[in-house]
Design brief:
By secondary structure, this protein is mostly helical. Helix content is 68%, strand content 0%. It has four helices and no strands.
Length: 82
């Protein structure tokens, strides 16, 4: 068995072992209203973003750029007017 094939099998086994946890996490994230909800509220979008950031930190992603809802909505408004 090649090292890459062994690593792939290890990853797939870990995914199988933790599938229920992954599914539960995704369902919890999907329940938080965000920009896909009609008339979305800024605080809910922030809560959604924070929950996702916490998920990323939980799997070892610790660096990234944080954008405020204001900056994001301003950029969206500008691109919509083009």
């Amino acid at each position: 068995m090649t090292p890459s094939l062994g690593r792939l099998r290890h990853v797939l086994r870990a995914l199988d072992d933790q599938f229920d946890d992954f599914k539960r996490t995704l369902v919890d994230l999907a329940r938080i209203p965000s920009v896909s909800a009609e008339g979305f509220q800024r605080e809910e979008v922030r809560r959604s973003g924070e929950a996702f950031a916490g998920l990323l930190r939980g799997v070892g992603v610790h660096r990234g750029r944080r954008r405020s809802a204001r900056a994001t909505s301003h950029r969206h408004d500008a691109s919509a007017s083009r």
